Amino acid sequence: MSRIESPADASTAAWLTIVALSAAGAVIGARPASRALLAVALLATLFKGQLVIDHFMGLRRVRARWRVMLGAWLLTLGLLIGLPLLWR
Description:
Helices cover 77% and strands 0% of the residues. By secondary structure, it is mostly helical.
């Protein structure tokens, strides 16, 4: 028998994912890293941002306009951080 996932279960899973990715980012940031590892850390951070937007801001099921605006903001932020960081 399959179990239907409740919103609380989805939020808990999102929160645990954010915690795990944050811990991995802290480990990466604790010592000098390669560009590839920095890119992975930045992508993980952007993924965490998307989880926050979807699950904790409640924008998972809103009009596409709002999701596109916040997705564009997240992408812009990632590019503004990532390009100088990775362009050495």
